[in-house]
Amino acid sequence: MHAPSLPGQTIEAYESVTDDDRIRRLHSLADTLEDASILHVNSTATGGGVAELLRSIVPVCRDLGIDDNWLVMDATDDFYEVTKAMHNGLQGEGAPLTEEMQATYREVNERNAADIDATYDIVVLHDPQPMGMLDSVQEAMPDAPIIWRCHIDLTDPVEEYLSFVADYAERTDHAIFSRGVYGEAIDVPTKRIIHPSIDPVTAKNRSLDEETAAAECDHLDPLSFDAPIVTQVSRFDPWKDQFGTLDAYRRARKTISDLQLVLVGGMAGDDPEGLELYERVAAEAADDPDVHVLTDLPDLTVNLLQRRSDVVVQKSLREGFGLVVSEALWKRTPVVGSNVGGIPLQIEDGYNGYLVEPDDTKRAADRLVTLFEDDERRATFGSNGREHVREHFLLPRQLEDLLTVFVDVLDLDP
């Protein structure tokens, strides 16, 4: 286990994007938790949505005076192969869960649990990867509530994977899900729904001055910002359906002849499928100079692309939440997204974007054409999207929800 390096961040940085009452409530909750120590555990420090959230949440909590801590598992490639299979199985597809896979999972978790050399008042285990350390943590910290934070869509799981994870989850004290329907299949003592959020002050989401924007445009040559652009930003993962996005682009290009497609994806440290899928997508697009398949871009470059694209697509087949949707909407870029997971919570169809069924590339293409042919509609959708995200999907709101859970599970008086 290791503690990742963290940026400095202050709660004051959010005063321009949230209301004063929420800032006051956050200070009050932090005062209530001033004597509590909290530990978050997950499986990677980079490349995934969980890591991105913790990289913002933990520094802000510390600035508020909360003893908030984050440890990342040290694991082998074999372990990540197992946990990727678990992730896929919990979302509906997967090879059989073998005894060897279960043994690898338990061995790595037990070794990591032994590395925790302090005690905490609350332990938060994020997603299935660290759940195998549950028994060791409970033995070492018998009075500490254990919270399982599930970021995955559990609406159609493979039963053997669900059963394996549920055996751990049902022995935690509390669970947090991103949508209510995700928690229906697991019987935990108490549950709470907390929608994830984006951090509006990070390099990926903050406003860009003209000089910075121009420099980032130069980094993306030969992409032309004088021709229409549609972009998808997501990990190279089968559930993100980059091939479906390619098909929708090709259909739309029959009408929008100079349309360009940018497929951007990072490589999560705990996802062994990423490089293989990136190579397959790049090979599929190799014959089209107007398709740009890019990986591991700096956050500022991703920010620029989401701002300068005319439309963003999120063509997921399954999606725990899909915060890249809110990232684009925050930048006033309308989104065409699949009607799965947390995407319909972010896209109001016909108001800030369009929803399509996940396998309907023809409908996705039609919606792209509708937006590209109507500048006023794109601008209106973009403004609507910005306000929708401001109200529902910025970090201070998520942080208030999370701190409220911590106060409740410790049975403190706010």
Automatic annotation (TrEMBL):
SUPFAM superfamilies recorded: UDP-Glycosyltransferase/glycogen phosphorylase
Gene Ontology molecular function: glycosyltransferase activity
Pfam families reported for this sequence: Glycos_transf_1, TreT_GT1
UniProt domain Glycosyl transferase family: residue ranges: 227-387
Alphabetical UniProt keywords: Carbohydrate metabolism, Glucose metabolism, Glycosyltransferase, Transferase
Enzyme Commission identifier(s): 2.4.-.-
Domain (Trehalose synthase N-terminal): residue spans on this chain: 40-182
Class in the EC hierarchy, top level: transferase
Gene Ontology terms describing biological process: glucose metabolic process
Domain of life where this protein originates: Archaea
PANTHER family to which the protein is assigned, alphabetical: SYNTHASE (CCG-9), PUTATIVE (AFU_ORTHOLOGUE AFUA_3G12100)-RELATED (PTHR47779)
Family of the protein in this entry: Belongs to the glycosyltransferase group 1 family. Glycosyltransferase 4 subfamily.
Assembly description: Homodimer.
Protein name, UniProt field: Glycosyltransferase
